[in-house]
Design a protein that fits this description.
Elements lengths: L1 H11 L31 E3 L25 E5 L8 H4 L17 H14 L9 E5 L14 H27 L4 E6 L1 H13 L9 E7 L22 E3 L3 E3 L5 H4 L43 E4 L2 E4 L24 H22 L1
Parallel strand pairs: 2-3, 2-4, 4-5, 5-6, 7-9
Antiparallel strand pairs: 1-3, 8-9
Amino acid sequence: MKIIGAIILSIVCFSISCSRKTVPANNTIVNLTEQVDYSNIDNWAAHPYKRDPSDSVPEPLQNDYVQDTAVDIFFLHPTTYLDDNLIKYPPKDFISPLWNANLQNEIINNKTDNSTILYQGSIFNNAGRVFAPRYRQANYYAYFTGDTINARRAFNLAYQDIKQSFIYYLEHYNNGRPIIIASHSQGTTHAKFLLKEFFDQKPLMKQLVAAYLVGMPVEQSYFNAIPVCVDSLQTGCFCSWRTLREGYLTEFIKKEKTPVLVTNPLSWDTTSNASGRNKNYGAILLNFNRIIPNTTGGRVFKNVFWVNKPRFFGSVFYKEKNYHIGDYNLFYVNVRRNAVARVQEYKKKIKENN
């Protein structure tokens, strides 16, 4: 029974991260003033000039794989630094390795590369070149600490790294290419700021194919000029969803007072119309090289995307109702195809306007 339990646990983690597993901090203090050198390719978790897990293509999709090198994806990964000592033994000040990840922490870097970069970043490698900066991410528990002042500092430090990496990317790699911004969880916390600062009512808006802001809420009034995508081919817009079992809402979401924009990742609209399991072209869970079609269907409900209980080997034992770690992977093929479709539509519009 223990072996069976371990197998089931591995499956239901959706291969991203059994998200409460502790990753201990280095004892090295994070340098708060030093800037990250993004000319050093080691400071990128994914980069087109090196081989990394974002280049991986599931075996069933390899025959159709042709990368579009005329488009770039800037992917911001979710939290992979989890040390609950931040809550158990709260530091007295911000000068602590508990607040932000050290970029030299190989445990964190390996977890990032072999989880989110492989299982999420790879979704977009058919649509373009994938860039994913390493950044001094805030500890997962910074979302829950009572020390809101230092938590804000931790998130600000993380965003400053992302901002710096994006500026470096624009100056050295973009060369006018169309851009997809993609993110999950903490990555989306920062991607919202990035879009607001660099795209919203800015000249760079013309290069935005679309943004996939997944796992965190995007408020209706957050952007001034970037609309939510309302169909599968709209460009210059964003998609966003949080995945929960139908009938369930987290306590945090129940307390939300601001209306949130939600996209159905099976139909790519924002209506409450349900999409059946037959519209789900394939999830990727434990086995990266196995596509599982018809895993789940769903519908937009208020601030979230409600889905039927996923079907996969061992799902009868799966009782979890919050599918945050599967926000992308439950819809892997749908998102992959959609990114390519939006790129093609973007190019079509550019050609028509020239």
